[in-house]
Amino acid sequence: MSLVKYVPEWMPGAGFKRKAREWRAVAERFYTIPFDSVKKSMKEGTAKGSFTALALRDITEKDDRAYQEELIKGLGGTIYTGACSPFSLPQMIKLTLRPIAGADTVWFHNVRTRTKLIRSSRP
User: E-assigned strands of 14-121?
Assistant: First the structure.
């Protein structure tokens, strides 16, 4: 077990713990707000077809409702995140690999969005 878990937030150098707590709250809202909106619209009878609405509708009496709703909220939020991303997969790969590959890397994409990188011969 990592001892970092027991480091208090006020300790010098432990600012990462404070940031993690703040970011967790933001991430939780990111998943909760759309989920709660779908649940509300379902109660009002105005819900549009979506993964979350269909999955909530399919929960049966024998299912653990709280557990199922947490799963649906997480997966629905993940789907929502991917749908709202302003970047395509090749762009995300470039942004992720640029610090590693370097600025002199030339990027090529084929039709199936496979990304290839070629290091430039410039020094």
Answer: 105-109, 115-119
